[in-house]
Amino acid sequence: MSLKELTYEHHKKAETQPFVKVLFSGEIDPKLYALYLKNQHPQYEILEVVAMAKGLLNGLTDIRRAPALNADFQELWDSDEEPKLCPVVKKYIDHIMSIKDDPKKLMAHIYVRHMGDLYGGQMIAKKVPGSKTFYKFEDPDALKAAIREKLDDSMAEEAMICFDFATELFQEMMEFVNE
Fold it and tell me: Is the pTM of this model over 0.90?
């Protein structure tokens, strides 16, 4: 079985959350989308910083998403007050710090998040407001191939944990829908 097949059920659970339907609706409020980006940013930032320190992003040109997430957030957020971070964000940061010395586990998170941006993220980009720099890659096909070279099926368990964190964020984001 491939990593994709091994994680299918967890992936399916994440992508069928009601908040994903909001993302795909084409009608998401820019402020709500900005709030989503703000919650994604610290998760990507910690993952990418720790992965870079381990050399895991070497050869993965244009993989860093945290700067683009922040730029997209800044473009859309029009309030002076800082948006609220969902509880899952701290849990995710703590989890990444607990696995920071395990390159395979970190790569499992790169697989879930960054491959997700290269695939499903491209469909989301057609439906959300703003510049969408978060979803823009210089050479997406080359990046997909380079990520795949660093993956193996032993990463499935940790990839499922990452999908569960994504599911939890989607569930927590529903609190802000129709506010």
Answer: yes
